[in-house]
Amino acid sequence: MSTKKWFGLALVVLALLALPLVLTSVGTAWVRITNLAILFVFLALGLNIVVGMAGLLDLGYIAFFAVGAYVYALLASPHFGLHLPFWIILPLGALFAGMAGAILGAPTLRLRGDYLAIVTLGFGEIVRIFMNNLSQPFNITNGPKGITLIDGLNVAGMNFTATHTLFGIPFTGPAKYYYVLLILLTLVIVVNLRLQKSRIGRAWVAIREDELAAKAAGINTRNMKLLAFAMGASFGGTAGGMFAAMQGFVSPESFILHESILVLAMVVLGGMGNVWGVLAGAMLLSFVPEFLRYTVEPVQQMLFGKLLVDPEVLRMLIFGGALVLTMRFRPAGLWPESRHKLEMNEEK
Amino acid sequence: MSGEVLLEARNIGKRFGGVQALKDVSLTIRAREIYGLIGPNGAGKTTFFNVMTGLYPRDGGEVLFGGVPLELGTPYLVAQAGIARTFQNIRLFGNMTAIENVMVGRHVRTHVGVFGAILRTPGQRAEEAAIRRRADELLHYVGISHRANDLARNLSYGDQRRLEIARALATEPQLLALDEPAAGMNATETVALRKLIEGLRADGLTVLLIEHDVKLVMGLCDRVAVLDYGEKIAEDVPGVVQKDPKVIEAYLGAGGD
Ligand SMILES: Nc1ncnc2c1ncn2[C@@H]1O[C@H](COP(=O)(O)OP(=O)(O)O)[C@@H](O)[C@H]1O
Ligand SMILES: [Mg+2]
Question: I need a labelling partner for A178 at 20 to 30 A (CA). Which of A64, A203, A329, B20 fits?
Answer without folding.
Answer: A64
